[in-house]
Structures are given as C-alpha cells and as structure tokens.
Amino acid sequence: MTSDLISQLTSGALTSVALTERCLALIAQRDGAIGAFLHVDREDALKQAAEVDARRGRGEALGPLAGIPIAIKDVLCQTGQPTTCASRMLKSFVPPYDAHAVTKLKQAGAVLLGRANMDEFAMGSSCENSAYKVTRNPWNLDRTPGGSSGGSAAAVAGGMTPLSLGTDTGGSIRQPASFCGVVGMKPTYGRVSRYGLVAYASSLDQIGPFAPDVFGAAALLEAIEGHDPRDSTSVNRPAQGYTKTLEQPLAGLRVGVVREHFVEGLDADVAGATRQAIDVYKSLGATVVDISLPHSKYCIAAYYLIASCEASSNLARYDGVHYGHRAANFDGMIDMYAASRGEGFGEEVKRRIMLGTFALSSGYYEAYYLKALKVRRLIRQDFDKAFEQVDLIVSPVSPTPAFPLGSLTTDPLAMYLMDIYTISANLAGLPGISIPCGFSSDGLPIGLQLQAPPFEEERLLRAARMYEKATSWTRLAPTPAA
Fold first, then answer.
1. CATH superfamily of 2-251
2. pLDDT per residue over 441-480, tens digit each?
C-alpha cells in the first residue's frame, strides 16, 4: 500500500534506488505482455532516485512523495522526454519544458519512471487507438484496460509502478481504473492546472491520479493541485490536506442513487456489485436517497458534439508546418497539409476532427454545437438540484466490465456508450472517483463511481476511504503476466 511505501522510504528501511530498481525489473518482466509503457528512461529514473536518497542521507527536507516512482501519461509534457500523445503526428516531439503537474511532482520528490501508453490524443475507451501498441488488461490479457489512460491504469494494476498520472476528458481515468481494479480520480475542473497538457477538449480535460488505494490517490492529488496563473481555468483555492482527514468517516452521509442508471444495458454483475456497495454504505450509517438526473440520457450526444468540436479546433495546429509530422511526398501546399494530416492522425482522431468540423461549420453551429452547450447547462442544473438532497452520488463506472480487445473497434457508437456513466461529471465539471467494488463472474474487476459537488474532493476521498476500510477489494492484485 502507498502509505507503507512512504513510511519505509522515510524511515530508511527502503531506498528509492531499490524501489526504482524493483519497478524497472517488473517492467522488464511484465510489460512485454501488458504494453503499458511507451518509453522508460532507466538511467534517468535511477539518477532521480539516487538524488533523493542522497538528499535524505544529508538530512535535507524532502517532498511528500520523495523517492516514489510515478508513470506519466504520454500527453503531459516532460523536459527531455518524448511526448507523442501515442500519435505518429508527434513521434519526434521532445518538450523543452515541464507541464505544471510534472513540475509539482518533481517538487514533491517523485521519481518520474516513464511514459504511459494511451489512446491517440486521449480519444478512445480501450487503449487500442495508440499508434504504437495495444495495452492489455493485467487481469486478463485478452481484455482492454480501458481508455484513454489505459497505460497508466495497467501500469499500477500490473505492479510496475506505485502511482501514475492520467487525464480524464469523458471518463478516461475512472473507466480504466474500474477495468483494472485500481483507484482513479478525476478532480473538479480547475483544481489541477493543465499547463503543459496537450489539449484534446479544453473545456473538459482534467489531470488526475491512479493508485492502488485511496491514500495513494489522495497523496498524489495533494501533490499536483494548486493555482497556476499560466492556466486561465486554474481556480485559486487553498490546497486541502486530503491525507490528513482521510481516516475521518463522514457522519450523516446522504448517498444519492440515480434511478436512470439502473436500466437495460447494464451488465448484471456490475449492477449487483453496485447494489452491494450501496448496502455497505447503508451499513456504515449512510442514508440512501432515490434521485433523478433527467437530462442524463442526452450526455453521450452532447459530449461527443462538444468534445469533437473542441478537438477539431485544438488539432488544427498540427499541419506539418507549425507543428507535427510533415509528409515526405506532396504536390503543393494544400496537398502537403492533407498528406501530413492524413499520415499523422489515426482513424479515430480523423473521425472526431471531421465530426467537429462539420458541427462547427456555417449553418450547423446553432443546430448542433450551440444546442449541445444548452443541454450541458441543463445537465449541470440536474446535478445542482440533486446535491441539494444528497452529499454524494453513487453509480456504476461502466455498463460492463472490461470487454475483449477488438470487440468494439468497428462499432464507434458502442465504444462511445462505454462512457455513459462518466461523461456527465466532465460536462458538469464535477469531481469523481472510481474505487474497486467487486468482480464479475469471469474474474474481471468492477468499479464503483462516487461523484460530489465541485471542489468537494475531500468529501469524496473520505467517503471512498470509508468504503475501502469496510471491504477488501483494493488489497487484491492480478496474477503477474508472464
């Protein structure tokens, strides 16, 4: 568990070099089968670890994550390390600067272990859209780890790193956390600076933690949160000491259960595990309240319009001139643009760019994009009204456990529906967390989602910890891959 690792490092019972070497050995042993990492800089990781050990040996003050190895999703800029966004478009990009979250991790003393695989430009729900490799679920190598932060989740679940960072635009932290049986958290929009995050959909993107337990998620969020004037959406609120209050149970907790969530299409094992988790909260003294989010049925449609429109705008910069891959063979400037983008982007990215460009075009903006923004406001109002009655909302994370690799790649709509329980938190800007709550009949992890009002991460983490203490799901790990 994360707190044990930190205690061992602090006491000197374990050195950062030893811990980092252990992680590197496990990556060498397991990642050939799992495919969680795109790039691992062994020498740099050991150098960072040795520096932490040396500073500890001199008695210097160290950060809260001093000596802990952490994997970084390949969409966050890191000085001197490749940042490809799992795309051929950025295959040669090495940033000259750090993302704000990466800077905060360095200040906290973390050892940056490597770059985690993902769906290209964070567009996908299965980690099959990477231009470089498919990531597999450590619990069953024939299943997806989820996406788009599938590499970050699989790296933690596979025991190859204690912690990792991901991003969540429509569920890209919570869904892979659920599929891989780890804890994953999407903070409130504005809680963590996106400076240095390669943008997909700017009004939805958030950076958040993966960990094997709730303490690890709380410690990692503590390390990366805080105001950053370089991100105009970063909110200036005092940092919260999540790890200090984590063991304090919430008295008088009111838990909302959304009646629209338990409908046709929800897997029986997922429904059963979610119901049992609700019973656990009842046994801990919580009051369960039946609530409604009447506009939730429009979430998928609104999200894929808004996200695709923003993606088409953000990715316009990759033209082979200003940024990104340039084709070797072309006939004139227009052909150079077309050939560079055609070669650089994968099929799913092209699909979303085309959808967004169409929806933003003259004559369709009001009919599609503007209407989607109005629906987004109604979805947020549903949550505001619900949180007048309850403190938290409990739901499934995904309608099914991890699905077989390749089973949905030819059916984009079915793939999009995997996000049906997570997207609303992004549209409303809310924090959400996925914690393990059971297994399917064929041995796949199932996640429980908790959602809270904006900037109530402390409440969310304390409630998650209440459930974790009452159960044993976060103490289980998959059989190591060969």
1. Amidase signature (AS) domain (3.90.1300.10)
2. 999 999 999 999 999 999 999 999 999 999 988 888 898 6
Domain ranges of the chain: 2-251
Distance CA 192, CA 206 (A): 7
Predicted confidence (pLDDT) at residue 481 exceeds the cutoff of 60: no
Could you tell me the maximum CA-CA distance found in the chain, to the nearest angstrom? 70
Q: Is-catalytic flag, 73? A: yes
Using DSSP, state whether 327 is helix, strand or coil: coil
Catalytic one of 73, 104, 106, 186: 73
CA distance 177 to 432: 12
The one catalytic residue in 148, 296, 424, 440 is 148
Per-residue pLDDT at 189: 97
Cis bond before residue 148 (omega within 30° of 0) = yes
pLDDT digits (tens, 9 = 90+) for 271-319: 999 999 999 999 999 999 999 999 999 999 999 999 999 999 999 999 9
Out of 172, 178, 193, 308, which one is annotated catalytic?
172
The predicted structure's pLDDT at residue 151? 98
Please give the Cα distance from 41 to 338 (Å, whole number). Answer: 34
Any catalytic annotation for residue 172?
yes
Q: Which among 85, 165, 167 is positioned nearest to 131, based on CA atoms?
A: 85
Mean pLDDT of 81-100: 97
Q: Is 148 in the active site? A: yes
Integer distance in angstroms from the first to the last C-alpha of the chain? Answer: 23
